[in-house]
Structure formats: C-alpha cells, structure tokens
UniProtKB/TrEMBL annotation, chains A, B:
Positions of post-translational 4-aspartylphosphate modification: D57
Gene3D superfamilies xrefs: 3.40.50.2300
Species assigned in the record: Flavobacterium beibuense F44-8
SUPFAM superfamilies: C-terminal effector domain of the bipartite response regulators, CheY-like
Residue span, Response regulatory domain: 6-122
Listed PANTHER family: HTH-TYPE TRANSCRIPTIONAL REGULATOR YHJB-RELATED, NARL SUBFAMILY
Alphabetical keyword list: DNA-binding, Phosphoprotein
Pfam family, one: GerE
Residue ranges annotated for the HTH luxR-type domain, each copy included: 142-207
GO molecular function, a single term: DNA binding
Protein name per the record: LuxR family transcriptional regulator
GO biological process assignments: phosphorelay signal transduction system; regulation of DNA-templated transcription
Length: 208, 208
DNA sequence: ATAAAAATACCTAAAACTTGGTATTGTTAT
DNA sequence: ATAACAATACCAAGTTTTAGGTATTTTTAT
C-alpha cells in the first residue's frame, strides 16, 4: 500500500487552492488536511496538524512566501516544502533554493507534473525546475517583482503610501533624507515604475 | 433536467486551469470543453467549438485579457464571458465592465462562489464583485467627502492613479495644464488631503 | 432668469520629486 | 575570500507638485 501524504496548501488565492485540493484528490496517496490564505493561518494550523508537505505560494499579499519558507524550515525541517509561483526566472528559483524549500513549481506546469513532483519530493529528491528558456527575459505582465524588495524598502513604501515626504520619512526613521531618496529610487527601479504615484497604485493593486 | 453549460477556460497558468476544471467537474451542469493558454489557442478552439461561457484570465503573458474580451464580445456577443483576475481594485473591475464582460471574479474567491457566479451569469445576470480590500475601511458616515467630487474631478483622479503628471493629463484631455492643476487643488481641498500621494491611497481605500 | 456649481485658465515661489551619478560600510552566499 | 546585496550618505540639475491666489465661461437646478 502507498503512503498517505498529509498536505497543507498555502495560497492567498482561495480559488487556486480549491483547484489544487481537487487535483490532489485525484490520487489516493495524497490527503489535503488544510488550506491557509496567509502565514498566520498556517502557523495556527501547525499547532494542531503535522503535515508531511506544505505547498507554498511565494507571492501572497503582505506575506513573503520565501521568508515564510525560511522560518518554517528553521523550526520544522522535517516538513517538506514545495514553492509555487508564477515566476520562472532563474533568480527566483535560486532564492527558492536558498529559502530551504525542497522544490519549486511554476504555475504554468500542469496537474500531472505537480503530482509527479510531490512524489519526487516525498521520496527525498528535491526538484527545482530548469527555466525553460534562460535567455528569455522573464516578462511578468500582470505579475509582481515585489519579492525583490528588501525589508527596509517595504518599510519605506508604507511611508510613501501615507503621503510622507522623503524628509518626513527620514526624520521618522532617524536616517538621512538622501538615504530615503536612494531607497525610493531603488524601489522604482526594481519594480520598473516611474514615479511614487505609480508605486502607490502598484502597492494597492498588489497588496503591498 | 438542468442545463449543460459548455465552458472554455483561458489561463496561461495551466495549473490554475487544471484546478478550475476539477472545480467545475464537481457539478453536472457544467462541462469544460477546453483549456487554452493564450488567445491564439482560444481562437483556434472557437473554430470548432461553441461554448456558452468563457472563463478568461485577464493577466496572461503577452495577451491582454481585457482586449481579448472586447474582441470576443464584438464578434460573438452571445458567448458569456467571466473575467478572472488577481486584482481586486475598483479600477480593474471597471475596466472589466467596459470590455463587455458579464462578470468579474478575483482569484481570492472560493470554488462555491465561482459556481454560483457562473449560474448567475448563465441566467442572464451580470456579476461584478464589489471588491473588499482588507485595508479598506468602510466608513461612509465617518468622513468620506468623495460625494462632493464632480465628474471631471473623478476623471482627473484616474490619471493621477496612473501616475500621469498634470502636463501629461492636460495633453490627454486637451485642456490646459493650469486647469488640471486647479482640479487637483480642488480635489485635495474637498477631500481634505495634503498631497497626490495621500489622494491615491484614499482613492484605493475608498474605491474611487 | 438667475444663482450655484463645474470647468476652464492663469500667475508665482517654495517644496518635493526625479534622474543620473558616486561611494562607504555591513551582511550574506558561494 | 570575494562577489553580491542591503543600507547608508551625498551632489546637482531639471521637473513636478504644492499653496497662495484671481477670474471667465458653461452647465445645472430652482
């Protein structure tokens, strides 16, 4: 008889999670024991349930899935983690590896490959997809480069959303106005935006 | 006996589409007759298959789902279209309406709501969710002066949210930059705000 | 018809943002 | 150890916004 792997799905897109449940329900060696929409829900659930595997979306509003994975692996290394993401760039895959995950699956893969990947991981082999075309500049369209942001940069964004000038932000954080300006510049560059106004809209539309 | 609605799912994330198929397979009044990962595949499929409904993701690599919806509705208005998106901002929902779609569902909704929405749409009622942004404080009594805004002022706000300078907005609307500046000033005054940045946040938090 | 509101247009000075740099000090990953 | 990233700080020129106005024309409602 086959193993019965207990799986928790973590994704802020409930619809995607609902779909995943049904995909895994096709097989009788998986059992989804829970769905969480954010890290808080996950930690809550982990108090009462011990999964064998966590399927973790790395872009969730307000939560950085990579950091979450890192924390999970630090305290519960025995739980396997497969990251799910709409990014396929080699950079993100590498960040995924560094966060301690056992696998990385882009959302462009299909149901069959997911099932195969889970079995691979549960049998002890990490699976990190080779980006199909490393030359291709990953064009995210609706996607978000927000995961590229550092902690301080996310903090700066909060002040921008509140309408703080760089001077006011600098005073609040006890750093130089020049530093705030540099952070702002770097944020715009990373997110490929042209102004703070675009940034604010971006922040709201991407739950930053 | 219930209707048997023929559905095509269009999403570049195969995994999401695979999940949707299984969600719809729960019910016997839906039948997924195809999955497409882009507009080309969709048009191909439409040569041989006539669906009752198309579930259309609006963010697909290389394809603008909104434009696709607009084109579809122009040539095949009898086919219902429900847009799916990870955005919940009022902007995008409105753009969805303008593209001729019959409904708009964010990916944060769950399987049950999707099924309900499909039935609503197939029975002739359009469904456009009122997005509830967790950050949004629904506090109409409390001090939203937004009702004071004129039509033109609301229009100006849309350009501000898109990051347009007053000069660029003026060119777009064929009016003087001074006029745009005056509108901006009046908007800030009416809403008791101090900067365009605050205005943008206000706009998102009050579904403007 | 007429008052109120909306939309238009103009002026100026100060403050803030944008852009294109350079550069040092820590920390992290390989 | 050494490359890459994060956080810090600085400079300058040009653009945009902000805040104080005034003022005319068009639309809307009573």
């Amino acid at each position: 008889m086959k193993e019965n792997y207990k799986v928790i799905i973590v994704d802020d897109h409930q619809l995607f999670a609902d779909g995943m449940v049904r995909i895994l329900a096709d097989e009788d060696d998986f059992e989804v024991i829970g769905i969480c929409n954010n890290s808080t829900e996950l930690y809550h659930m982990l108090n009462n349930h011990k999964p064998d595997l966590i399927m973790l979306d790395i872009q969730m509003g307000g939560t950085n899935g990579l950091e979450l994975c890192y924390d999970l692996k630090k305290t519960m290394p025995q739980i396997k983690v497969i990251l799910i993401s709409m990014f396929e760039s080699i950079n993100v895959v590498n960040e995924g590896k560094n966060s301690g995950a056992n696998g990385y699956i882009p959302k462009t893969t299909d149901a069959a490959l997911v099932k195969k990947s889970i079995r691979e991981v549960m049998e002890g082999r990490d699976i990190f997809i080779k980006p199909i075309n490393p030359e291709t500049k990953v064009d995210l369209e609706g996607g978000s480069y927000a995961f590229l942001l550092s902690k301080r940069e996310r903090e700066i964004i909060l002040y921008i959303k509140k309408g703080f000038t760089s001077k006011a932000t600098a005073e609040e954080l006890n750093i130089s106005q020049f530093t705030v300006d540099t952070h702002r510049k770097n944020i715009l560059k990373k997110l490929k935006l042209n102004s703070l106004k675009e940034l604010i809209s971006y922040a709201y539309e991407n739950n930053l």
